[in-house]
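Every protein is a chain of amino acids, and every chain bends into a shape of its own. The fold becomes a row of whole numbers, each drawn from a learned catalogue of backbone shapes. The protein below has been through that process, and both of its lines are reproduced in full.
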Amino acid sequence: MPLLILPWIFASGCRSMLKTAKSKNARPVTAQPVTVLPVAVLLGVLLAGCVSAPQQRQTVRICTGGDCSIQDASVQTFVPQDDPRASPPRDPDAYAGESRADLQAAAASGDVVAAYKLGMAALSGTGGAKSAETAARWFRQAADGGHGWAAYRLGEMYRSGRGVPRDRQLALHYLTAAASARQPLAANALGVMALTGDGLPRDSAQAARWFTIAAEQGVADAQYNLALLTFHGDGVPRDLSGALEWMRHAGGNGNVKAQTAVGRLYLTGLDTMGQDFTEAKTWLSLAAQKGDREAGKLLEEAVRREREEQDYRRRLAEQSAQTMAYWAQAAYVRELNTTTVYHYWYW
């Protein structure tokens, strides 16, 4: 079962309270009219508070694998934190300040990780001279030895012409080698190439396959593109819930366009997916804080709509209390009225 995140409906608690109150006051009450009205009014106040009072702890219902739980409504809880889709990919062999001399000795004996680290050190100028040409040589040694991250770095250098002559064929060669080893950034690069037809024949299905490899490892741009492909049914079966799932992942990993897209969806609703102003404000706030003007305007609208909904619920609760008071004071009919019976004779 795909991960499904459903908005937690706070009003259910109010309905439960009202139902309980009705059951407790179901007996005839005309014998003690003085005590019933305060109870009804008090219940109305409680209901109004239930509707209008700000929630101390916003929650969402998260379901995955058939199991559901209630968690805090923060971006960090949108997916389990041990899910690789929940955070951007990390370079497992990033240069960490090791001695270049020691790394060179290890690389000379065939250590591809050491060769890759030397390439990263030369590319950034950490621990020695900065040289893109030197970095490319070390990356080539590591990539030819099967190091996926080195193949990705070298492929990008050939694609941009940094440190090596620009060469599309070699770029495609090394990027494909890296992506075939499930290197996420290389897979995303190939997905973009297949989606746009830049360097590869345009093929949405192939793009979706590459994006999936990258998206499953937390690449936000791949998650965003895969969400759009899934929404349009381009290269993959159309699935609105699946599209929202990937878009939420992308937004959680910092993609501003995804944050705005998710916020807009919860603001207006889409197809079978309803409105949720709390969710809308959460996502639009993230994007607005990063300077997205559209998100800022939508956030203002979400705040206004939520205020209007709260006012409506407050008025409804007050009217419900008045209705309960009316019913509570209603007296039984205790007199027997003479009913006129008409007899018709047919000739």
Observations:
- The first strand starts at residue 4 and ends at 7.
- The chain is about 60% helix and 5% strand.
- The radius of gyration is 32 Å.
- The longest helix spans residues 293-329.
